[in-house]
Design a protein that fits this description.
Penicillin-binding protein 2a (Domain 2); elongated; Beta-lactamase; 24 strands; 27 helices; alpha+beta; 5-stranded antiparallel β-sheet
Length: 707
């Protein structure tokens, strides 16, 4: 018979060790000390079941009390949630279920001085898909793949693009074909989360090849651009002007985005919209550009470069590579840029249709994105003689009517006797013109005459200082930013002792000489050495001379109009400085510049009489050729800059072709052909009211596809 270990055996006395704890009493038996400690075990602490009275009602009461406390806690919490914190809870729930989505504004148009749209907008239909729907319903992605021809991987790649906001639908196709639009519209149940939305994209009525460097293009905004414009409403899927007018006048062109509040369910799917704020279309930027003249300039520059490449330079026996070039037309009385071209070029439609990384890299490597009119730096050669001649007559170092004997070779007096290093300089475009004064020296481009001026200035620094020519160049704006309203303008430089030291410190191998000698001043005086200027700087300088001495900032834009025609900005001529050009200074130089084109001994007489189809006697052109040496074994830079009519100048026209050979052969024909257009199509003053009326009268922008 089994028994509990706690049961007391019959007939036996239960030892003290095994007695229950409550029966233990101190005892003083024999051999026991009063304070002797007693060992205690588990059995001393636990009573036998038979010795404990069962009390189940106590347990139930404890359990009931516990549940009552928990219920009270729940009730109190519900009270706080439903009553005390009700308003805050509702706000949190609404914030979790509502999302604000951006509605992109239509960008403003860019028009020319006559209201001709150069950059407009076209309404197209965009096929979009909800990012959440694409993840929750993979079959719809497969259906879109079959319909559009895009792979499933491509669609998911678009869905995962972080450019778009989390709750912003992701575009799958931008210019959705009509057949796809029709199929999706007729079978909406097969494409849950898919929508067809009208969007505005840039369109170029002239084909996208007209003056892309001036107009610029738009592209996805970058994180840096967002950070640079905090609080201006840009989001990750905004577009931003990336160059040209699109970038410089971004604040006007972008408009104001609208918003719509999206109601989102627990799974993240959009279930409705509310509180729609319509976007505001961007402003219209009116340019000083004339579309017809711009077209003529683009064509003349491209044709001129191709002509240079296919004709052997008679002096070097080589075909000039002519890798780059620029041309521009400027109003001499306002600084308005009425046309500007750069070569090589690109087509703006490439950015609306999608330009691959490979295509972009190829264009970038070719220099197609460079606006050489404001970024190209070229040695100016003989076009710089305007600056030296002005310094000559302002200082009186040599009278304009003083004749010198141009033998074709100039030897620096007392320079390193016994050697020719840096001492002997030869004429380039001419070879020994005999007796000449300043006007003839300009007309025939006598290097000898200006070699002598460089020597004279440096030999008397105590009277004229070390930089008299450079100082005049600075007054004309050379070596300074012209402040043209286009991004990424470069600045040129005029060689000088300080510039030489700076260049040597930056690139010792390219500029090994840090000292300045007489020969350096001689070279600088006729536009050589380390002098390098931008085409727009030289155009600004000649415009300053043409108008009598006022230097204006070049201006591409004339005004900004709202969509309703209100004038927001009307840009007035901005004067930057003055050059002292009294008749005693200006007239002899002007006489020489007129002779360049009209005197039979002038360096541009032949090309103008070949390419100009207007009467040069009634519309007299003044100008200057330039043939600027480059590094060894390279063709010289080809320049021509002219203005007309000489008696009352209106426009300066400039062309430069890098490594294009002699100025008369490469650049002069481009300028002559540009004047052909100006003479035949006189430009009218800008009438902003007429410009707005013209844009409003144009046919509405077309829509690609239909909803």
């Amino acid at each position: 018979m089994s028994r509990n270990w706690r049961e007391r055996p019959a007939g036996r006395r239960f030892s003290r060790w095994w007695r229950p704890w409550y029966s233990l009493r101190p005892s003083r038996g024999a051999g026991t000390r009063i304070n002797e400690p007693k060992s205690v075990g588990l059995r001393d602490l636990v009573a036998a079941p038979s010795d404990v009275t069962a009390r189940p009602e106590v347990r139930w009461r404890v359990v009931g009390l516990l549940f009552a406390v928990l219920l009270a806690v729940v009730v109190v919490r519900l009270f706080f949630l439903q009553v005390v914190e009700h308003a805050a809870a509702v706000t949190v729930v609404e914030q979790n279920s509502l999302r604000v989505s951006t509605i992109a504004a239509t960008r403003g148009e860019i028009v020319d001085r006559n209201g001709t749209v150069l950059v407009g907008n076209v309404q197209s239909v965009q096929l979009q898909i909800s990012r959440q729907q694409a993840h929750l319903d993979p079959p719809v992605v497969g259906a879109l793949s079959s319909l559009t021809g895009l792979s499933v991987a491509d669609i998911y790649s678009l869905v995962k693009n972080e450019q778009y906001e989390p709750y912003q639908p992701v575009p799958i196709l931008t210019n959705t074909p009509p057949n796809i639009i029709q199929f999706v519209s007729l079978h909406p149940e097969e494409f849950p989360g898919v929508s067809l939305v009208k969007v505005s994209t840039r369109v170029y009525p002239h084909g996208g090849a007209l003056s892309p460097h001036v107009l610029g293009y738009v592209g996805p905004i970058t994180g840096t651009e967002i950070a640079e414009h905090p609080g201006q409403g840009y989001v990750t899927n905004s577009t931003y002007g990336q160059n040209g007018v699109e970038m410089f006048y971004e604040n006007f062109l972008r408009g104001h985005d609208g918003t719509e509040t999206l109601r989102v369910n627990a799974s993240g799917s959009v279930i409705g919209t509310s509180n729609v704020v319509q976007p505001k279309v961007g402003d219209t930027v009116v340019l000083n550009t004339d579309a017809g003249l711009q077209t003529a300039l683009d064509q003349a520059l491209a044709a001129g470069i191709q002509r240079v490449r296919t004709h052997v330079d008679p002096r070097s026996g080589k075909f000039p590579p002519a890798p780059s070039g620029a041309a521009l037309v400027m109003n001499v009385h306002t600084g308005a840029i009425v046309a500007m071209s750069s070569y090589p070029s690109y087509n703006l439609n490439a950015f609306t249709g999608g330009l691959s990384n490979r295509q972009f890299a190829a264009l970038e490597a070719n220099g197609a994105f460079n606006n050489y009119a404001i970024q190209g730096q070229y040695t100016p050669g003989s076009t710089f003689k305007l600056i030296t001649a002005t310094a000559q007559l302002q200082t009186g170092i040599l009278p304009a009517n003083r004749y010198l004997n141009d033998s074709g070779t100039f030897v620096v007096p007392g320079c390193l006797k016994g050697t020719n290093h840096g001492c002997v300089f030869h004429d380039d475009e001419t070879s020994g013109t005999g007796l000449i004064n300043l006007p003839l020296a300009i007309t025939r481009s006598s290097d000898y005459y200006f070699y002598n001026l460089g020597y004279l200035f440096w030999s008397d620094t105590s009277r004229y200082g070390e930089t008299p020519i450079q100082n005049v160049g600075n007054e004309y704006g050379l070596g300074q930013y012209t402040q043209v309203d286009l991004p990424y303008e470069n600045v040129g430089r005029i060689d000088s002792p300080a510039v030489r030291q700076q260049l040597h410190a930056q690139a010792p191998k390219a500029f090994p000489n840090s000292s300045w000698y007489t020969g350096d001043n001689v070279e600088m005086a006729f536009g050589q050495g380390a002098t390098a200027i931008t085409p727009i700087e030289l155009a600004q300088a000649y415009a300053t001379f043409a108008n009598g001495g006022t230097r204006y900032a070049p201006e591409v834009a004339a005004a900004v109009l709202s969509a309703s025609g209100k004038v927001i900005e009307n840009y007035q001529p901005h004067v930057l400085g003055h050059v002292s050009l009294p008749p005693s200074v200006r007239n002899p130089i002007l006489q020489g510049l007129v002779g360049v084109v009209n005197d039979q001994s002038g360096t541009a007489y032949q090309p103008f009489h070949q390419y100009a189809n207007f009467n040069l006697n009634s519309y007299v052109i003044a100008g200057k050729t330039g043939t600027a040496s480059n590094q060894a074994h390279q063709e010289p830079n080809s320049w021509f800059v002219g203005f007309g009519p000489a008696s009352s100048p209106q426009y300066v026209v400039l062309c430069v072709i890098g490594q294009g050979g002699y100025g008369a052969n490469g650049a002069a024909p481009v300028v002559a052909q540009t004047f052909n257009y100006l003479v035949a199509h006189p430009l009218k003053n800008i009438n902003l009211a007429a410009v707005h009326a013209t844009t409003q009268a144009l046919p509405a922008t077309s829509t690609r596809g239909a909803l």
